[in-house]
Design brief:
The chain is an alpha+beta fold and 76 residues long. The protein has one domain. 14% of the residues lie in helices and 24% in strands. It contains two helices and six strands. The strands form three sheets. The chain has a two-stranded antiparallel ribbon. Strands 3-6 form a two-stranded parallel ribbon. A two-stranded antiparallel ribbon has the order 4-5. Strand 4 and strand 5 form a beta hairpin.
């Protein structure tokens, strides 16, 4: 299982290598390039599934139908 993912901002294109939480989904992420607050696209459980190079650990393990039960806000 990969725990690192490169998030790409759909607004400015900034890329950041981030470590994904293994015990919850990260619902929000603030872009380090432009400050835009990103949230998952419809049908995705977290920002990593929407904007990351690697989907979140639950989806890696159990497939796209896996659903996260907790939310984690963006680190400050």
């Amino acid at each position: 299982m990969q725990l690192e993912s490169i998030l790409t901002c759909p607004i400015c294109g900034f890329q950041a290598n981030e470590t994904m939480p293994t015990d919850a989904c990260q619902f929000f992420y603030v872009c380090k390039g432009c400050g835009e607050k990103l949230k998952p696209l419809p049908g995705d459980c977290c920002v990593f599934c929407s904007y990351g190079s690697v989907p979140c650990p639950p989806v890696q393990q159990d497939g796209k139908d896996a659903c996260c039960t907790n939310e984690v806000s963006a680190p400050r």
